[in-house]
Amino acid sequence: MKYTRLTKEQLEELHQEFINFLATQSITADEWNNLKVNKPEMAEMELDVFSDLIWEGALNKAEYLEHISPMHMYLFHLGADKMHVIAIILKNDVDITTKEGYNWLRENLMDENVEFSQAKKEYSDDKNLDKFKMIEKGAVITKGDLFKYFDKLIN
């Protein structure tokens, strides 16, 4: 398995897609139920393959990631050959994961306690695995509104 297995909740949300996946494997509902009972390792393998397919599709479509922690905001634009990151670092005790802290940042972008930096980074040989590792560390896929805003602000 390349990524991680989807959670029970995610699999429930993707129920119809999973049925379609099983159909492409020529596995009927009865055969799936039989697999789960009599060959659970095979059923687990099918879940792993399906999970990897879903992750691969989501990662291929992902254009932006955000990772926000109490004193840092990392905004990524996932380009075709490299990623562009904008980092916002707070040098005070404001926690931007709270409503009050985020509002403070919005109102004090030019404060001396707010530092901006940016960089470009090449992908490894496996671009999607690079993206996935960032998600595992807490980044989330977004539409890029924050990245676009800060990119316009600092460039």
UniProtKB/TrEMBL annotation:
MF terms in GO: aminoacyl-tRNA ligase activity
Pfam family membership, one: DUF6495
Keywords: Aminoacyl-tRNA synthetase, Ligase
Domain of life of the native organism: Bacteria
Protein name according to UniProt: Histidyl-tRNA synthetase
Lineage: Bacteria, Pseudomonadati, Bacteroidota, Flavobacteriia, Flavobacteriales
